[in-house]
Amino acid sequence: MSRESTTPPEGYDVGRENMFDFKVDDQLLEVVETDAKNFILTTVDEVFNWAKLSSIWPVTFGLACCAIEMMAASATRYDIDRFGAGAFRATPRQADLMIVSGTVTAKMAKRLKLIYDQMPEPKWVIAMGSCAIGGGPYFKYGYHVVKGVDFLVPVDVYLPGCPPRPEVLLEGLMRLQDKIRGRKGKSKAPKWVTDYAKKIPYRK
Amino acid sequence: MEPKAIFDLLTVHLGEGAAEYRENDIESWACVSVARIADACRFLRDTEGLEFGQLMCLSGIDWDGYDENGKGKSVAILGYEADGTPETSDRVADGELGVAYHLYSHTCDHKFTLRLRFPRDKATVPTVSDIWSTARWHEREAWDLMGIRFEGHPDPRRILLSEDWVGHPLRKDYQMPDQWLNVPLRGQPYANNPFAPADDAPAGDDTPAEG
Amino acid sequence: MATNDTRLTGWADQDHVPGIKSELLELNMGPQHPATHGVLRLLLHTDGEIVYKVTPVVGYLHRCAEKIAEGVDYKQWVVYTDRFDYLGPVTNNHAYVTAVEKLTELEVPARAEHLRVVTAELSRIASHLIALATFGLDMGAWTPLLYCFREREVILNLLERIAGGRMLYNYMVPGGVRYDLPQDNWVSDVLEFVTMLENKKLPDYNTLLTYNKIFIERTSDVAIIDRETAIDYGCTGPVLRGSGVQFDCRRNDPYSIYPQLDFEIPVGKGEMGTVGDCWDRYIVRVREIEQSCRIIRQALEQLPEGPVHAIELKKPVRVPAGAAYSRTEAAKGELGHYIISDGGTKPFRNKVRSCSFCNLQVIEKVGVGQMVSDLVAFVGSLDIVLGEIDR
What we know:
Shape of chain C: globular
Helix content of chain C: 40-55%
Largest interface: B-C, 49 and 51 residues
Oligomer: heterotrimer
Strand order of the largest sheet of chain C: 1-2-3
Strand content of chain A: 5-15%
């Protein structure tokens, strides 16, 4: 906890020598308590979000040419592992990101939905490549091509390109990380945190 | 061996009237009648001196709307419009279907082409999958995309499209599907297209750079 | 497939204990799987570990390329050819433009032919590098994957400098290539890369993988395709050459400037096991990389001056009416196009005979009697690409 939360606001006459040796009035106590609790919960949110974004594990869902650029992004030159996302899981049950890289065809659509449903919450989807965004070059005469993966699953980040360079995939990953960073968590703080909040020294 | 010599041997075996020879600078072919194709292929594979052990390619062809004058005015196929809905047309197709066989011999190092043509409502051809095993998948694809039945095929299912797909897409009168079993196949027009030309921009030509 | 067609090797007989009843287990190696190369689905009927029946199910990447060919121009369709074998895309371009030029009377300038061969062979090396990498990965070897991707990055950079794209180029047109050499020292960079590949990297791969005892044990005498089966099933490329048949479209059905170039056709000889096993197909690919380096060096030394396209790029290609089948040696095998033209700017019918489509079919015969992990090795050695199979 930073020092700012334990020092009283500017201009307030403390009337004491020792930091812990003062009597605080109730209004300030209420403000300080809510601030402290909000701060703790916000910090907890930040911590959890930071953990989530630093270890996004994708599921191996390479469909077509973009999959090769995804593999190149996880190779040595454009190492995706430095973002924490290098552990590609083969099973969707252990993954939290689905990078749809390649054309989604009508025959594959059901399987894509199955893989998406098997991923546990929270999960994100990156639509990589123009085929996954809007059908790509197969828009006009593609009778078997789904014109964009957002007809099937909700997409968080769209990456243009045919295929997008690995740097574009890394940028998309960073945008997704920004999206996760600003996420308001629905989880409550654990009990040890709320107990500690009650034991803050300036509360008598 | 020259294609004409191969064709002469073939006619000797098949008899008169079963096959015709079409001479061409680039690729000559033999036009065989549908009932004798399996016989012809077996002869071409098993004879000494011909030994066509490999079927390079088996293609299904839809001749509907072909421009016989060679001016490039064949009937256009139907696709999706710019806003994603399928194009429709009332034209009824009545052309013939065809199959082309391209054979190659590793031992004698010569090639040969056979072609069939048959009407649309009698689209059944004897199979050659017991002669060359590679024809199994080629014939399944011809059935799947073109709707040509091969009698005697051990596994006549669709191969590229799903089993419950309706229609044969490579036909010239195929209309693009709007959806298939609740999987949407139509496109989606842009809601706000940042790359659309401004309202007061002069109307340009949208066709691709040609001539 | 009829059950009396199943052919069991010595493995299956040993496991049957009399008096114990067992059933075949239907196992699905689904379209999403780390070991299948793309969205391939294999339906296996296994008895324990031994496979009695393999049924490949394809079509999960069917992108309607042949229908699109009837709707777009000859020049515009070159973009879609890249997406067939997306590991070595320039070879697919080469196959298509050769097929179109067979029907027209376009004279491709000599400089364009040389550039075509150089870029196609670089793409072939890139495709074979991935074949080696993923084959090693299927066997459990991680290092060759990273090494091969590192080499592939250099090739992709070189091709990006000349063609503009990193992985899919759209580099050729019927009548030539789109772009001439860049103004920097591209030629010397290519020669430097080729020399480094031959002298330092291929010996590395040979030490790591090719002559590695574990790799040899896992791949020799596994999934033997004999000569008659290979020809009957229409296999081409390293699959056919690994079975001992000396056939290469660049030599037997020559096109472009290959008659003037001096290179060998590597053929599997059964050095580590039987002719036609997985190791033979693998070593054919390694030796083809060496031969491609030779071809690149010769083509660059003989590079003439001149224009790089026969027609202006703005003009459409009008092909006289006719029909022809033409085949070239793509990275995975024989890629053929049967183009029927009606005299206009769009083809009337373009049938693509892709190598992986015919190569994969052999798994229905040869996969029977293998163990599941040998089947994975077999699929890896066939080196299929689903973009080609499904088109």
